[in-house]
Design goal:
Blueprint (H helix, E strand, L loop, with lengths): L17 H10 L5 H5 L5 E4 L14 E15 L5 E8 L4 E6 L4 H7 L5 E10 L6 E4 L2 E4 L13 E4 L8 H9 L1
Parallel strand pairs: 4-6
Antiparallel strand pairs: 1-8, 2-3, 2-5, 3-4, 5-6, 5-7
């Protein structure tokens, strides 16, 4: 009996995929390991340089390492809920805001004192002009941040599909 070509193995059997994620891969027209090899990123993002908070420039995309200083759940006048996280490093403080969020996840994971690496578009607050970041990518630092697939390096950005967040997609594609 001939051995099976490893490139023809269905993506479902790759570690971390399974039947549910295989459906999301099918929407991306990735059904085998070979398809995954030719599923190229849409673009790349440089997250290799960490910038101190005080040196963040409005209108740029930046990555910084900080500790969670405080969190706040706020209701707007129009009835929307915002989750705010204040990050602090040795040079300053910056606020991050999420509009769509899972409250249990946010309150469990975003606790005071945790060290994180944050990447996102720096913008000026509409009212105060202070720098802030909306819906940033956050990686919790456990050990060395250089081991991360998502921060501290040039990372691939793949075409999006429902049911397959970028972080999961990058982790699977790295295998």
């Amino acid at each position: 009996m001939r051995p099976i070509d490893p490139l023809l193995i269905p993506i479902q059997y790759v570690k971390g995929v399974g039947p549910a994620r295989a459906k999301a891969f099918r929407r991306l027209q990735v059904e085998t390991v070979r398809d995954a090899l030719f599923f190229l990123p849409r673009r790349y993002e440089d997250r290799s340089e960490l910038c101190p908070i005080a040196q963040l420039d409005i209108g740029t995309r930046a990555t910084f390492r900080a500790r969670i200083h405080a969190t706040n759940l706020r209701n707007t006048r129009r009835g929307y809920r915002l989750f705010e996280v204040f990050f602090r490093d040795q040079t300053g403080l910056i606020k991050a805001i999420w509009f769509n969020f899972n409250l249990d996840y946010m309150t469990t994971h975003f606790t005071r004192g945790k060290e994180v690496v944050v990447s996102g578009d720096i913008r000026a607050n509409f009212y105060t002009g202070q720098p802030e970041v909306l819906h940033p990518d956050v990686e919790f630092v456990e050990g060395e941040a250089s081991e991360s697939v998502h921060m501290g390096r040039i990372i691939p950005i793949y075409p999006a599909t429902e049911g397959m967040p970028q972080k999961q997609l990058r982790r699977i594609m790295k295998q």
